[in-house]
């Protein structure tokens, strides 16, 4: 019985990813923050992780893909917004960055 539970767990783990995500506007005005530890089906993106925080998200399309123009009402023209995965800033749209199990996604503002 123990081995069948292990098989089920690994089968589930192979079709899903669990990540941690946080949003911080401490470099801006500090009014926007949130975090979550969502589990998604494989193929989820950094944008999906942001939406899992429950904060309002505004986007627009660009030639590079999905662009987040505001989080929690704090717009990018007030401060620059960026994201990182496991401490590195990807050079790809958040809608194209596919997450791996255990990834840590941080959304933050820069002045």
SS element count, helices: 2
Are there runs of 5+ residues with pLDDT below 50, and where? 1-11
Q: So what's the overall shape?
A: globular
- The amount of helix comes to 10-25%
Class inferred from helices and paired strands = alpha+beta
Average of pLDDT: 86
Main sheet attributes: strand count, strand direction, barrel closure: 4 strands, mixed
- Radius of gyration equals 16 Å
| Strand segment count | 9
Strand composition percent: 35-45%
For the largest sheet, list the strands in their spatial order: 3-2-9-8
How far is it from the N-terminal to the C-terminal residue, by CA? 56 Å
The SSE order reads HEEEEHEEEEE
Defining traits:
111 residues, alpha+beta, three-stranded antiparallel β-sheet, 2 helices, 39% strand, disordered N terminus
What does this structure look like?
- This protein is an alpha+beta fold and 111 residues long.
- The protein has helices at 2-15, 46-51, and strands at 16-18, 20-24, 33-36, 39-41, 57-62, 65-71, 74-75, 80-85, 104-110.
- The strands form three sheets. A four-stranded mixed β-sheet has the order 3-2-9-8. A three-stranded antiparallel β-sheet has the order 5-6-7. A two-stranded antiparallel ribbon has the order 1-4.
- The relative contact order is 0.25.
- The model is unreliable at 1-11 (pLDDT under 50).
């Amino acid at each position: 019985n123990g081995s069948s539970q292990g098989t089920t767990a690994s089968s589930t783990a192979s079709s899903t990813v669990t990540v941690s995500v946080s949003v911080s506007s401490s470099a801006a005005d500090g009014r926007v923050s949130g975090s979550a530890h969502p589990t998604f089906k494989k193929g989820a993106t950094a944008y999906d992780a942001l939406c899992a925080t429950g904060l309002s998200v505004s986007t627009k399309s660009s030639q590079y893909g999905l662009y987040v123009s505001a989080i929690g009402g704090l717009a990018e023209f007030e401060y620059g917004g960026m994201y990182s995965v496991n401490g590195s800033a990807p050079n790809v749209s958040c809608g194209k960055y596919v997450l791996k199990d255990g990834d840590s996604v941080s959304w933050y503002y820069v002045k």
